[in-house]
Amino acid sequence: MDVFVDIDNTICHTNGMDYPNAQPITRNIEKVNQLYEEGHRITYWTARGMKTGINWRPLTEGQLKEWGAKYHELRLDKPPYDVFIDDKTIHTYDWEEGQWIEKFSEPRKS
Ligand SMILES: [Mg+2]
Ligand 1 centroid to 38 CA: how many Å? Predict the structure, then answer.
């Protein structure tokens, strides 16, 4: 599967836009790494810099490397939004509670 993963407050704790001091959430990084190892294509997708125009790529790449995050692509073009309504999402909190991509692996009911 093609899996898009948010960064801030999904694989790290980030206070507002204080990206340099983001703290990794190791258990979540390990979950994504497991998907990577299982052959899924991992894209980290973040809105870092989308409002300010600041290029956070070097910092973000360094953090992902330092945190041992495995991925295929890093995209910083996620649009800023307040609410994301979509039929193919799992909220971070549900994911942490154990709900995961099994629901998407099943044949879709129409
Ligand atoms: Mg986030």
Answer: 24
